[in-house]
Amino acid sequence: MAITKEALYHELRRRIVTLDLPPGTDLDEVELTGAYGMSRTPVRETLIRLQSDGLVVARRNRGVSVAPLDVGTLQCWFEAGPMIHRAVVRLAAYRRRQEDLDAIRGAMEELEQAMAVEDGTGMVLANERFHDLIGQAARNPYLYASYSRILADHARIAELTYGYENEVRAEDNKDLTRREHRALYDAIAAGDTATAERVIEEHLNRAADTLRHVLERSGEVLADVSLET
């Protein structure tokens, strides 16, 4: 059954950020046209759009594949992520409007509902939406472009770590996540830039710590990688 180009974009993006399409997966235009009942032109345009998001890569004579999420990628993410996150939440605290706060709160409540029923994919997508709406509230198109790229891998990292968090002290971790998101929302709503920056920094520090444990368990070698935020 055919779908629209916009629907295809959101479907492939969802599958990539939730790791249903793991890093390195080949994305063949012909296979995608058959699977989704579309011509090659909208499929190609969708892949180009995903490439601009940083979620797929095109290599000469090797086609298109899902972007890597390797040690080098994680190193770059943890170098750039905290700086961009802090800038975004600071501007959001300055510039948020009531409609922004309503939308952010809605995404926060969606995340909490997904956590309550242990819907891992729902948690990842609601978490990404929560942060994306904060990025929109900052109202800086240059910063938002970089932030969107950061959030794409933020979601993939979250998919890795949620499974671990659900196995180890699951309820404590869920409660802490709820409190962190609510504290960030409250700080932005109050226009409290200092608290917003502190909360996001603590949140990212915990994400880095959890990711270390995940990679240690999976046998990844991190000798040359610093995940300091």
Q: Summary?
A:
This protein is 75% helix and 3% strand. It is mainly alpha-helical. Residues 220-227 have low confidence and may be disordered.
Write out key terms for the chains shown.
229 residues; mainly alpha; two-stranded antiparallel sheet; 75% helix; disordered C terminus
Report on this structure.
- The chain is mainly α.
- It is 75% helix and 3% strand.
- The protein has nine helices and two strands.
- It has helices spanning 5-17, 29-36, 40-52, 71-95, 98-116, 120-138, 141-167, 170-190, 193-218; strands at 56-59, 63-66.
- Strands 1-2 form a two-stranded antiparallel sheet.
- A hairpin with a 3-residue loop joins strand 1 and strand 2 (63-66).
- Helix 6 (120-138) packs antiparallel against helix 7 (141-167).
- The radius of gyration is 18 Å and the shape is globular.
- The termini are far apart.
Furnish the topology, listing elements before pairings.
Layout: H1 5-17, H2 29-36, H3 40-52, E1 56-59, E2 63-66, H4 71-95, H5 98-116, H6 120-138, H7 141-167, H8 170-190, H9 193-218
Antiparallel strand pairs: 1-2
How far apart are the first and last residues' alpha carbons, in Å? 45 Å
In DSSP terms (H or I, runs of 4 or more residues), the helix count works out at 9
- Characterize the largest beta sheet: strand count, sense, and whether it forms a barrel: 2 strands, antiparallel
Main sheet: strand order? 1-2
Based on CA atoms alone, the radius of gyration comes out at 18 Å
Q: Given the C-alpha coordinates, what overall shape results?
A: globular
Mean pLDDT: 86
N to C succession of SSEs: HHHEEHHHHHH
Question: What portion of the residues fall into strands of 2 or more residues?
Answer: under 5%
- Extended strand count: 2
Low-confidence stretches: 220-227
> Based on helices, strands and strand pairing, what is the structural class?
mainly alpha
Helix content bin: over 70%
